Amino acid sequence: SENQDGIPVKQRLLVVANKLPVSAVRKGADSWQLEMSVGGLVTAVLGVKGFETRWIGWPGVNVSDEVGRRALTKKLSEKRCIPVFLNEDIVHQYYNGYCNNILWPHLHYLGLQPEDRLANTRCFESQFDAYIKANEMFAAVVNEHYGEGDVVWCHDYHLMFLPKCLKMYNKNMKVGWFLHTPFPSSEIYRTLPSRSELLRSILAADLVGFHTYDYVRHFVSACTRVLGLEGTPEGVEDHGKFTHVAAFPIGIDSNRFIRALELPQVRSHIKELQERFSGRKVMLGVDRLDMIKGIPQKILAFEKFLEENPDWHNKVVLLQIAVPTRTDVPEYQKLTSQVHEIVGRINGRFGTLTAVPIHHLDRSLDFHALCALYAVTDIALVTSLRDGMNLVSYEYVACQSSKKGVLILSEFAGAAQSLGAGAILVNPWNITEMAASIAYALNMPADEREKRHQHNFTHVTTHTAQEWAETFVSELNHTIAESQSTTKQ
Ligand code: ADQ
Which processes are annotated in GO (biological process) (predicted)? Predict the structure, then answer.
C-alpha cells in the first residue's frame, strides 16, 4: 500500500509476547534506562523483510504510578516497544501461578505430585481468572495500536487466550499464534481444567504454529477429542471456520555466532579456557535451571560414566552453566538445592585436592563467554525431559566448525527431529544409556565426528531464525488472503 504522497508504506507487524525484549531500570521519577536484549527471537523478528515491527508486552517491572508509566511508555517507544502494565497481584497469579506453575509443567508432561496437584486445584480458578484478565489487558493494548492491514503475531503459552480476545475486538484482525513449548499428547492435555476455553481461543487465530509435526498432531487431536471438531493434518474446522495449523521449526541467527568467534575478546576467552583445561576433555551443559532440562539426570549419567570408566578420572570435566529462572516458584528452589547436593556428592566422591570433575555455575554468561565455551568444548550434553525445540544445541553446532565436537541430544527435545542424524540421541531417563553415550562420544573417531558435525552445521546455517519468522509471517498473510477469497466466492 502507499501513503497520500504515493510512497510505499510497509505493513506493520505487531509482535505480542509476555515479556518485551528490553530490560527497564528506573533512574528517577520520570527517567528510565533501557537495555534491548539480543537473542534469536529478537533478531529473527527484526530481520523479517517488508514489515515494520512493533513489540507489545509486559516490561518486566511493576510501575504503579502514572508519572513512571508515562515516562517508561515514551522511553520504550524509542525501541518500538509498547508496554502492557500489569499490577503485582496479576503478575503473581497469572505469571508465577497459572503460566509457570500450571501450564508450563502441564505442556512438558511434568505431572505434579498428587498433593501439589490438589493444592493447585484449589487456587486454579483464581489463577485462571487472572490469566484471562491479563490476556484481556494485552488484547486492549494491541487493539489500541492496531491499524487496518497490520499483522498480529502472538507468542507462547502465556497468551493462549489472546487470539479470541483480539477477534472479539475485530474479527478481521490478522492473527497468528505460535507455541514455543511442546504441545503434549491429548491424553495429557485433556486433564487441564480449562482445556476447552484455551483450545477455542487458539482456534480463533488464522494461523497456529508449533515447532514440530508431533505437536501439530497432538493439538489437532486435542481439538478433535476435547471439542469434537473435524481435524486434518492441515488444521481444524469449527462451524465453517478453518484454522490452519502447521509446523514452523525455529532456528538461530547462526551468523551472529560464527562471526563472534573471530572477535578478539572471544579469541582471548578461548585461549584462556584452552589453557585452563589443557590435557582434559571438556563436556558442556548450558540451560536455564528448569526441571524440563533434565539437569539432575545429566549429572547422574556423568557420575555413572565416571564409575564405569576409572581410566577417565581427572581426564574429563563437565561444565554445567545453569541460569536461575523463576526463582519465586518453590519447585525451582527445590531443584536448585537438589542439583547442588548431587554436584557436591559427586565432586566429593571423584574430586582430588587439585581438581573436581564437575564445575557448576548458577549464573548466566555473557554472549562472548558463551561463544568461547561452545567453541572449546568437546561434547555438549542436552538432556531435556521435554523441550519445545532447544536452541542451545543449535548454538553449540554453529560454534564447532574447527573442533567438530559431539552433540548428545535428548530425543524429547524438538531439536532431535532436525539434528537427530548428526547428534547422538538419548533417552534422558536412561542413565546407563547416557553414560554409554558419553563414553562413545569421547572415543568417537575424527571422521565420524566430522560427518556428524557437517550434517548438523548445514542444517543450523540454512534453517535460521530469520527464515522461521519470515515463513510464519508470509504464511499468515497467505492464509488470510486465501480465506478472504474463499469468503468472497
Ligand atoms: P528456553 O527454554 O529458554 O526457550 P532454549 O531454546 O535452549 O530454551 O534457549 C535458551 C537461550 O538462553 C539460548 O539462546 C541460550 O544461549 C541462552 N542461555 C541458556 N542458558 C544460558 C546461560 N547459562 N548463560 C547464558 N545464556 C544462556 C523456549 C523453549 C525452547 C525453545 C525456545 C525458542 O523452552 O524449547 O527452543 O523457547 O522457541
Answer: trehalose biosynthetic process
